[in-house]
């Protein structure tokens, strides 16, 4: 028992419409349940327990693909990174809606009549992310409910419900013609148009057209806490294929805001922040705000954030039906897709093609930013540099491109997003290894080969553009060098190592790109500076994951301003109204550092050993924190304390540098030694430090074993707690047992670990600041006065 609000409290609140945390807070200050009014009915007290006339299903979302070495079995250690929730009038309907809400390709049930029953039964016996699919497939291929219960130990009631879904799918497959009755019944079981199309051998658009002809559409029911006994005053809706809709008429023009769906690595609550602030801003503009989302962990799915809430999957089919229902009861100004991350952005073109007005940046503009050829042409017209790249259709192509642009190169499959499958390679053998090990390369599956800007400084820019004027909100300098995913890199605002000339060049480039793309609202652009030359890496014409950080650092509500620009306001008018500063760009108050939260200790290999704690071009962080102070050292120190544990004020530090890092690592090591920290290092690093006059104790590598006189290895120092900070930069991407053991041992013991030279330099500055003292605690309101 936990005498507190738990993770499931948020789920229960969204499932019932009963705001547990809000009521708990009132109870804590002396109210009794019968004194607290139910917000939804405005008639009943909180002492009336919620009554449900619907079914709610929650499914966790996993990101095991980000940790390929991790054991995918589910255990007592939580491994999910988010969740989706769905509401329906039956369990099959809610289950299938929840499964498509996860937004994972191939995660909806499959009804292929060919398959290996024995393999599916084996899969059903093991608790993994895909177990429910093995259960469904085993039942579909002929296994009985008792047999599947025997191997899976899942309650027969649930198995019987899944069997009913299979029976409906089988009936669909046997029909020569889809009648109104059969199609409607399939929709009542939660089947999407895409699933039905796959079963009967048609296109998704064919099923949608058939439903239009037969007038088969969902109605929207209301979560009211009382099973319709009292009238609900907060429109909190879910879809079902029944007869009576509960969507009320309205007179104000409405704007649909598409949320970000379930949290996952790369798309989390940062986007929910933008959606919520947009809802508040559009209410102020006298629009009816309509939120569409399926994530119970978010503020956007609170029943009182928007004027109307639809707890629905973020798919083309589901969003189109909501648009249709709202259009039937009042005017709709349009749909905002640029605030919820990649999920709504991916729906923009299909929605526009179906006649839905997209407000803000247009789908055509989004295409310019996302199409490598079009974006490259834009940069060329504007005389902006980008790293050289090529598209390889074979290993020979990849080798030729690598030799043309020069090593190191960044390689990735062209058909994945979000850094998946990316790797930095430094020579021919590493490139050959990547091609053979990590990807399928062919004319249908080319590989992108980019020149990698080694030791470059990467920067993130968030800005607003209204078609005429640019408001540059902030330029963030990444603390880790280019090559670390922007979501995993710490960053500082304002930048500390960028010249005034470079800042002016970045602003000019940002305005050229925003104008060239046709941005209307927020834009995020990633730059890199190498040897004084500015390169454009990519542009995203949407809210980025750094919008909440920048908004708090400069004291400007960027998401609110973006929503208003999307609906026609200018930056000039927002300056007049006080939403934006009266003149100029965003100005950071103090020094702010964003640090990533990484879940290394949550994942283990099958043998129980840890996964490697290495940063790279593929994002792995599951959250972030912010540190703020008057100096970089103190701000960085605060961010580390919040993210993964405080940096040590005294004691010993173990350092081990890859050969290519030995020169750059000297500065940080010297700072630590000068500040009074005792340094330990393995032979090669110890020699490099000693040659520069730095006092260091030589220790043996794990692979060398203890010395003849019992001298300790680096691993012994970590496991005994002798060192309180570990600095270990990796030797390329291949498996190196010494480095892996050092990093995983430090993670297991909660010892802070740094794997980049830039990270070491930042930590050294923070540790010097810690020893000097002078830290203060200041509220956000005081910073922003």
From TrEMBL:
<dbReference type="Pfam" id="PF02142">
    <property type="entry name" value="MGS"/>
</dbReference>
<comment type="pathway">
    <text>Amino-acid biosynthesis; L-arginine biosynthesis; carbamoyl phosphate from bicarbonate: step 1/1.</text>
</comment>
<dbReference type="GO" id="GO:0005524">
    <property type="term" value="F:ATP binding"/>
</dbReference>
<dbReference type="GO" id="GO:0006526">
    <property type="term" value="P:L-arginine biosynthetic process"/>
</dbReference>
<dbReference type="GO" id="GO:0046872">
    <property type="term" value="F:metal ion binding"/>
</dbReference>
<dbReference type="InterPro" id="IPR058047">
    <property type="entry name" value="CPSase_preATP-grasp"/>
</dbReference>
<dbReference type="InterPro" id="IPR013815">
    <property type="entry name" value="ATP_grasp_subdomain_1"/>
</dbReference>
<dbReference type="InterPro" id="IPR016185">
    <property type="entry name" value="PreATP-grasp_dom_sf"/>
</dbReference>
<dbReference type="InterPro" id="IPR005479">
    <property type="entry name" value="CPAse_ATP-bd"/>
</dbReference>
<dbReference type="InterPro" id="IPR005483">
    <property type="entry name" value="CPSase_dom"/>
</dbReference>
<keyword id="KW-0067">ATP-binding</keyword>
<feature type="domain" description="MGS-like">
    <location>
        <begin position="645"/>
        <end position="785"/>
    </location>
</feature>
<dbReference type="GO" id="GO:0005737">
    <property type="term" value="C:cytoplasm"/>
</dbReference>
<keyword id="KW-0547">Nucleotide-binding</keyword>
<dbReference type="InterPro" id="IPR036914">
    <property type="entry name" value="MGS-like_dom_sf"/>
</dbReference>
<dbReference type="InterPro" id="IPR005480">
    <property type="entry name" value="CPSase_lsu_oligo"/>
</dbReference>
<dbReference type="InterPro" id="IPR011607">
    <property type="entry name" value="MGS-like_dom"/>
</dbReference>
<dbReference type="Pfam" id="PF02786">
    <property type="entry name" value="CPSase_L_D2"/>
</dbReference>
<comment type="similarity">
    <text>Belongs to the CarB family.</text>
</comment>
<keyword id="KW-0436">Ligase</keyword>
<keyword id="KW-0055">Arginine biosynthesis</keyword>
<protein>
    <submittedName>
        <fullName>Unannotated protein</fullName>
    </submittedName>
</protein>
<keyword id="KW-0464">Manganese</keyword>
<keyword id="KW-0665">Pyrimidine biosynthesis</keyword>
<keyword id="KW-0677">Repeat</keyword>
<dbReference type="GO" id="GO:0004087">
    <property type="term" value="F:carbamoyl-phosphate synthase (ammonia) activity"/>
</dbReference>
<keyword id="KW-0479">Metal-binding</keyword>
<dbReference type="GO" id="GO:0006541">
    <property type="term" value="P:glutamine metabolic process"/>
</dbReference>
<dbReference type="GO" id="GO:0004088">
    <property type="term" value="F:carbamoyl-phosphate synthase (glutamine-hydrolyzing) activity"/>
</dbReference>
<dbReference type="GO" id="GO:0044205">
    <property type="term" value="P:'de novo' UMP biosynthetic process"/>
</dbReference>
<keyword id="KW-0460">Magnesium</keyword>
<dbReference type="Pfam" id="PF25596">
    <property type="entry name" value="CPSase_L_D1"/>
</dbReference>
<dbReference type="Pfam" id="PF02787">
    <property type="entry name" value="CPSase_L_D3"/>
</dbReference>
<dbReference type="InterPro" id="IPR033937">
    <property type="entry name" value="MGS_CPS_CarB"/>
</dbReference>
<feature type="domain" description="ATP-grasp">
    <location>
        <begin position="376"/>
        <end position="567"/>
    </location>
</feature>
<keyword id="KW-0028">Amino-acid biosynthesis</keyword>
<dbReference type="InterPro" id="IPR011761">
    <property type="entry name" value="ATP-grasp"/>
</dbReference>
<dbReference type="InterPro" id="IPR036897">
    <property type="entry name" value="CarbamoylP_synth_lsu_oligo_sf"/>
</dbReference>
């Amino acid at each position: 028992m936990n005498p507190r609000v738990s993770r499931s409290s948020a789920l229960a609140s969204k499932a019932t419409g009963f705001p547990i945390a809000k009521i708990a807070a009132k109870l804590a200050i002396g109210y009794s349940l019968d004194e607290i009014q139910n917000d939804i009915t405005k008639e009943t007290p909180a002492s009336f327990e919620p009554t449900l006339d619907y079914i709610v299903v929650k499914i966790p979302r996993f990101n095991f693909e980000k940790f390929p070495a991790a054991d995918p079995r589910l255990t007592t250690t939580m491994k999910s990174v988010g969740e989706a929730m769905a509401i329906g009038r039956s369990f099959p309907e809610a289950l299938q809606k929840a499964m498509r809400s996860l937004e994972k390709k191939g995660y909806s049930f499959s009804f292929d009549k060919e398959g290996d029953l024995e393999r599916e039964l084996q899969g059903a016996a093991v608790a993994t992310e895909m177990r429910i699919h093995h259960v469904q497939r085993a039942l579909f291929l002929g296994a009985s409910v008792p047999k599947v219960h025997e191997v899976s130990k899942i309650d027969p009631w649930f198995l019987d419900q899944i069997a009913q879904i299979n029976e409906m799918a089988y009936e669909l497959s046997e029909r020569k013609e889809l009648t109104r009755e059969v199609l409607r019944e399939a929709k009542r079981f939660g089947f999407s148009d895409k699933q039905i199309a796959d079963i009967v051998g048609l296109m998704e658009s064919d099923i949608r057209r058939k439903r239009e002809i037969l007038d088969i559409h969902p109605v929207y029911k209301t979560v009211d806490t009382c099973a319709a006994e009292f009238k609900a005053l907060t429109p909190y809706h879910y879809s079902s294929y029944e007869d009576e809709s509960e969507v009320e008429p309205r007179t104000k023009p409405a704007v649909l805001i598409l949320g970000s769906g379930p949290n996952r690595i790369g798309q989390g609550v940062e986007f929910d922040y933008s959606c919520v602030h947009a809802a508040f801003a559009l209410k102020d503009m006298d629009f009816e705000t309509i939120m569409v989302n399926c994530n119970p962990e978010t503020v956007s799915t609170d029943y009182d954030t928007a004027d109307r809430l639809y707890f629905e999957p973020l798919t083309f089919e589901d969003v189109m039906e909501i648009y249709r229902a709202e259009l039937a009861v009042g005017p709709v100004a349009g749909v905002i897709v640029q605030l919820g991350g990649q999920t709504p952005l991916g729906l923009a073109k299909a929605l526009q093609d179906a006649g839905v007005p997209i407000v803000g940046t247009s789908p055509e503009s989004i295409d310019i930013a996302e199409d490598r050829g079009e974006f490259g042409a834009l940069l060329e017209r504007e005389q902006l540099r980008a790293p050289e790249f090529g598209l390889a259709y074979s290993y020979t192509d990849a080798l030729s491109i690598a030799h043309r642009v020069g090593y190191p190169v960044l390689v990735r499959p062209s058909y994945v997003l979000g850094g998946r499958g990316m790797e930095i390679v430094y020579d021919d053998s590493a490139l050959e290894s990547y091609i053979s090990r990590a990807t399928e390369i062919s004319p249908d599956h080319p590989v992108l080969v980019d020149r990698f800007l080694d030791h470059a400084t990467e920067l993130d820019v968030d800005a607003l553009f209204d078609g005429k004027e640019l408001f540059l909100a902030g330029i963030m300098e990444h603390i880790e060098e280019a090559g670390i995913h922007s979501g995993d890199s710490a960053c500082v605002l304002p930048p500390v190592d960028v010249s005034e000339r470079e800042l002016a060049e970045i602003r000019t480039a940002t305005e050229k790109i925003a104008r060239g793309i046709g941005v209307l609202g927020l834009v995020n652009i990633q730059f890199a500076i190498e040897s004084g030359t500015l390169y454009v890496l990519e542009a995203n014409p949407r809210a980025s994951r750094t919008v909440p950080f920048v908004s708090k650092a400069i004291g400007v509500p960027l998401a609110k301003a973006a929503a208003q620009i999307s609906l026609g306001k200018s930056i000039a008018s927002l300056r007049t109204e006080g939403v934006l500063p009266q003149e100029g760009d965003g100005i950071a108050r103090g020094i702010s550092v964003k640090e990533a939260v990484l879940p290394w200790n949550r994942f283990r290999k099958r043998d129980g050993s840890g996964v490697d704690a290495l940063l790279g071009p593929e994002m792995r962080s599951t959250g972030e924190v912010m540190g703020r102070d008057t100096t970089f050292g103190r701000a960085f120190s605060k961010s580390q304390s919040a993210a993964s544990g405080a940096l040590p004020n005294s004691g010993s530090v173990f350092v081990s540098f890859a050969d290519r890092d030995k020169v750059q690592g000297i500065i940080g090591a010297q700072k630590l030694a000068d500040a009074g920290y005792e340094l330990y290092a393995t032979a090669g690093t110890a020699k490099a430090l000693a040659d520069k006059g730095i006092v260091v104790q030589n220790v043996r590598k794990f692979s060398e074993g203890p010395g003849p006189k019992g001298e300790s290895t680096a691993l012994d120092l970590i496991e005994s707690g002798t060192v309180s900070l570990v600095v270990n930069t990796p030797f390329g991407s291949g498996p190196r047992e010494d480095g892996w053991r050092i990093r995983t041992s430090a993670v297991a013991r909660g010892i802070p670990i740094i794997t980049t030279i830039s990270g070491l330099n930042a930590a050294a500055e923070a540790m010097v600041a810690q020893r000097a003292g002078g830290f203060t605690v200041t509220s956000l309101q005081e910073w922003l006065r």
